[in-house]
Design a protein that fits this description.
Elements (H helix, E strand, L loop, with lengths): L1 H7 L16 E4 L9 H17 L5 E4 L6
Parallel strand pairs: 1-2
Amino acid sequence: IRHDVEAMQIEHVKSNCSDYLTLSIGACLVEPRINMDKTEIIKCADSVLYQAKENGRNQVVIHGDEHED
């Protein structure tokens, strides 16, 4: 999806970062569990989204599940 959006070269007139629209994506990979705190998953995804932006934008950052039961 990120590559497809970039390839469309949609003008982004108000951007200070790029002449064209790009996507930064943050995702959190977890194994579903009973009573899982969905808020924590959203916070995780938000955190890696900002990581993608800080690392130069126009990229995907995925945080893996480090919990071992």
